[in-house]
Each structure stands twice: as C-alpha cells, then as structure tokens.
C-alpha cells in the first residue's frame, strides 16, 4: 500500500507540474502578448506588469503567499498545503516563459486568445483532476464561502469578472475586456471538460418483456452488470421488470445494439452520468477524516491540533 500511495502522489505532482506548465505556456505565449487581462492572480499580475514593469510571476507568487497566510487560519492547513505546490509551479513557469515568449506566436489576436484559453483550461483541469490547485481566486473564494452562503464557483466568477473589467481603466480598450471574458468562459469550459471526461458514463433504464435475454446478453457480450428492479405499470396494473445498466459512454452503442437486436420494441431511456464509482468503474477519491475529527463531528469533544478540518479537501 505504501508503494501505491507513493506512486499516486508522485503521479499527481507530475501532472500538476505539467498542467501548470501548459497553463503558463498559454498565458505567456498567447494571452499576455495581446495585453489581455484574464481572471485570477494572473490577471492582477498582468495589470501590475503593465503599470510598473514587475514580472507577472513575482506579483502572482507574492500575492499567493499573502492569501495563503491569511487563509491558513480560516480554511485550514490541508487546503493551504494542497495549494502551495501548484501556486509555486505556476509562478515558476510563468517566470520562465514570460521573457521567452514576449512576442507571442501569431499575429491574430482572437486566435491567440482562443489558443491561450484552451491551454489555460487544459492546465487547470489537469491540475484539479490530480488534487492540485493554482491558488489565486480559489483562496479568496474558499475564505468567503466559509462565512457566507455564496458558493465557491460563484465567488470565483465575481472576482474574475471584477479583475477583467478593471482592465478597461488601464488600456481604455473594450476589445481587450471582451477578449478577457472570452478566455474566462473558454478556460472554464475546457477545464470542466477535462475534469469530467474521464468520469462520463451512461445509465440505461430498460423496460422489456424479454428482460432476461437482454440482461444475459449485456452480461456476456458487453461485460457489464445489470440490476433487476420490480415495478408496476399503473395503467395496466401489471408487474414489470426494469433493468438498470451503467456503462462507459463509449460502450453505450454496444448496449443499445444488444437491446435492439433482442427487443426492438423495448422502452428504453438513456441518460448521461458524471461520476460512477465502484467495481468496474472509477475509484472514489475522497480523503477520509481522522477518527478524532469523526468523533468531533459526532459531538465528542476532542483536542484540535490545526484547522485542517475546516473545509473539505479538493478532489
């Protein structure tokens, strides 16, 4: 088990590093040369850079450290430790790439913005899927959501929109503000795709008189399990058997063909599911609370050594 944990941890750090490198490449090579301010501390660093000449990486890292120091007592040690590595790698790569790609790669502003937004989304998504975070507005959102009813995602959106909108007072150019929002939307969409792609699954609900044949064929041919539920048709007042099947998205065509070949008149529903965990699917990656924390939430007084239980860890 120790070797497995070491391998998983090492793999996570490798992919977090790679994700931050991709993000920094998209930001420094495509977004920054167009003088487009995006959300997060990268956006604040961009504003400071064009006002004072201080490299984005310096501003970004200093502000991350300040926010993490403030967040330590509010959101807990576990959140801070999980964020500081990604924030450090982000600043390192931005510091390396900014002077290397100062002139950008293309002369097409919109193309640069699109490519940069895609790279940012891929990088952030890759880091999140391996328990990492780039810091920045994540920290602010986590602190605010601790004491208010505003969700983390909504708070991040508010902060990012404020940062992007403020760039108008720096450049007095509405096009760059619009480009900033394009990056924000595109990066969020791509990150969501990266995070959820591996967890996309399909759920079939099948009503058929030939349910036994269909279930057997799905077991033998598609190598997927079936759950048989007992129901009653309210119109006919007759008992019916319902098959519940979970499969990967790429396996859905195989399941559909099996159903059609056995009973073309079967009443079938198909729905997309994000996250199926258990045997044959993904492993539920959730860090369990320690026995002391479990007793504390159950109403048993226990000494608290730090604030690591203040908010749930990112998964």
Class from helix and strand fractions = alpha+beta
Strand arrangement, largest sheet? 2-3-1-4
The rough form would be described as elongated
Terminal residue distance: 20 Å
The biggest sheet amounts to: 4 strands, antiparallel
Q: Tally of extended strands?
A: 4
Mean pLDDT: 80
What is the H/E string?
HHHHHHHHHEHEEHEH
User: What fraction of residues sit in β-strands?
Assistant: 5-15%
Helical content, roughly? 55-70%
- Extract low-pLDDT stretches: 299-315
Question: What does this molecule look like?
Answer:
- 61% of the residues lie in helices and 11% in strands.
- The protein is built from twelve helices and four strands, in the order H-H-H-H-H-H-H-H-H-E-H-E-E-H-E-H.
- Helix 1 packs antiparallel against helix 5 (109-128), helix 3 (56-75) packs antiparallel against helix 4 (77-100) and helix 6 crosses helix 7.
- The radius of gyration is 25 Å and the shape is elongated.
- Mean pLDDT is 80; it is low at 299-315.
